[in-house]
């Protein structure tokens, strides 16, 4: 049985020093803001350091991300409206936050219920570059061949830099029974695993980013939240793990109403 390895990303002194344009989600290509105007770049300050996570804009006031991204957080800095991490972008909006909500049954050891919500200090105005992600998954995600994983995570196990440009890669979801062959009974019904054609998928720095069921170029359903990778590394052919959104729709609705 292979241990689940967390992939929240520890930032150095300066994010600009960490980011390089040749770094990306494993096997990905550059994404465009017109396709992903809901994407959120999140810097998290805790007692142990500064971390980077992804997220998705759910409403004018709320961001959906992973539980591990809000657990123990002191301060968030959230960037919306840009697929660039550090380069100048006139469409970028940096927003302050007022509170976060960690799922009450989140388990940092097993990553069960790995979901959290961040509330913005003030409601934002939507633009051509900032839109909410609709809808959330309304049914269980079956094994499906054409999903999208996005994020600013690193490109390889040897390159620890974040990507300057948001990356997107096509992946396929597999059954939980297939995923248990790799991870054993650590996989629960509220998790979903994905694989690429070879080793494409999420890596360190992608945690909290959405997994999307893309019906068309401009329509996507939020079906998962990046949560874990194999202890064998991002470049292995082992599946990446996500929190299934479907099981938390009622909780999200209740918290954000």
From TrEMBL:
<dbReference type="InterPro" id="IPR001254">
    <property type="entry name" value="Trypsin_dom"/>
</dbReference>
<protein>
    <recommendedName>
        <fullName>Peptidase S1 domain-containing protein</fullName>
    </recommendedName>
</protein>
<dbReference type="Pfam" id="PF00089">
    <property type="entry name" value="Trypsin"/>
</dbReference>
<keyword id="KW-0732">Signal</keyword>
<dbReference type="GO" id="GO:0006508">
    <property type="term" value="P:proteolysis"/>
</dbReference>
<dbReference type="InterPro" id="IPR009003">
    <property type="entry name" value="Peptidase_S1_PA"/>
</dbReference>
<keyword id="KW-1015">Disulfide bond</keyword>
<dbReference type="InterPro" id="IPR051333">
    <property type="entry name" value="CLIP_Serine_Protease"/>
</dbReference>
<dbReference type="GO" id="GO:0004252">
    <property type="term" value="F:serine-type endopeptidase activity"/>
</dbReference>
<dbReference type="InterPro" id="IPR043504">
    <property type="entry name" value="Peptidase_S1_PA_chymotrypsin"/>
</dbReference>
<dbReference type="InterPro" id="IPR001314">
    <property type="entry name" value="Peptidase_S1A"/>
</dbReference>
<feature type="domain" description="Peptidase S1">
    <location>
        <begin position="25"/>
        <end position="257"/>
    </location>
</feature>
<feature type="signal peptide">
    <location>
        <begin position="1"/>
        <end position="16"/>
    </location>
</feature>
């Amino acid at each position: 049985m292979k241990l689940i390895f967390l992939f929240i990303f520890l930032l150095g002194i300066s994010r600009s020093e960490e980011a390089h344009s040749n770094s990306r989600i494993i096997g990905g290509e550059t994404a465009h803001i017109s396709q992903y105007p809901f994407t959120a770049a999140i810097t998290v300050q805790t007692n142990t350091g500064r971390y980077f996570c992804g997220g998705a804009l759910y409403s004018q006031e709320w961001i959906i991300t992973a539980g591990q991204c809000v657990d123990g957080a002191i301060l968030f800095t959230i960037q919306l409206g840009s697929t660039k991490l550090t380069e100048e972008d006139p469409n970028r909006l940096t927003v302050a936050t007022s509170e976060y909500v960690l799922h009450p049954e989140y388990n940092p050891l097993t990553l069960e219920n790995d979901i959290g919500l961040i509330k913005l200090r003030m409601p934002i105005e939507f633009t051509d570059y900032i839109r909410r992600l609709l809808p959330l998954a309304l049914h269980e995600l079956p094994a499906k061949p054409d999903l999208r994983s996005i994020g600013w995570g690193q490109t390889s196990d040897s390159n620890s830099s974040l990507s300057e440009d948001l990356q997107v890669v096509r992946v396929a979801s597999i059954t939980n029974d297939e995923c248990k062959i790799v991870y054993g009974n650590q996989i629960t019904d509220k998790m979903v695993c994905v694989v690429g054609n070879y080793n494409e998928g999420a890596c360190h720095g992608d945690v909290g980013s959405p997994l999307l069921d893309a019906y068309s170029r401009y329509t996507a359903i939020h079906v998962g939240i990046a949560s874990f990778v194999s202890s064998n590394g991002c470049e292995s052919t082992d599946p990446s793990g996500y929190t299934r959104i479907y099981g938390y729709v009622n909780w999200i609705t209740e918290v954000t109403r």
